[in-house]
Amino acid sequence: MSGEGKLKVVINKPACCGYGVCADICPDVYKLDDNGIVYVEDEIVPAGLEDLAREGAEACPQSALKLVAA
Ligand code: SF4
């Protein structure tokens, strides 16, 4: 089992303004709730989605998403 390279999503919910840019870029990781606020079903980014997840996080105008080593 290899935990190498795994990324965990850390969300600063109060900072999220619901622009949905993250979910547009990486809908498999970033979801929007009924209020348009971001959430993730699993904070560990699925293998293969790291680049898109990073792109989505970097595109957030509020810098509400961070990816850290899991
Ligand atoms: S891009 Fe940022 S502000 Fe917009 S929904 Fe995603 S986390 Fe929230």
Secondary-structure map:
Layout: E1 7-11, H1 21-25, E2 31-32, E3 38-39, H2 50-59, E4 65-69
Antiparallel strand pairs: 1-4, 2-3
This protein binds iron/sulfur cluster.
Structural class: alpha+beta
| Total of DSSP H or I helical runs spanning 4+ residues | 2
Report the β-strand fraction as a percent range.
15-25%
CATH class: Alpha Beta
Main traits of this protein?
70 residues, alpha+beta, Alpha-Beta Plaits, two-stranded antiparallel ribbon, two-stranded antiparallel sheet, 2 helices, 4 strands, globular, binds iron/sulfur cluster
Could you please describe the fold and organization of this structure?
By secondary structure, the protein is of the alpha+beta class. It has one domain (11-69): Alpha-Beta Plaits (2-Layer Sandwich), CATH 3.30.70.20. It contains 2 helices and 4 strands. The protein has helices at residues 21-25, 50-59, and strands at 7-11, 31-32, 38-39, 65-69. The strands form 2 sheets. A two-stranded antiparallel sheet has the order 1-4. Strands 2-3 form a two-stranded antiparallel sheet. β2 (31-32) and β3 (38-39) form a beta hairpin. It starts with 6 loop residues before the first strand and ends with a strand. 23% of the residues are buried. The structure holds iron/sulfur cluster (SF4). Iron/sulfur cluster (SF4) is lined by residues 16-22, 30, 38, 60, 62, 64-65. Iron/sulfur cluster is lined by residues 16-22, 30, 38, 60, 62, 64-65.
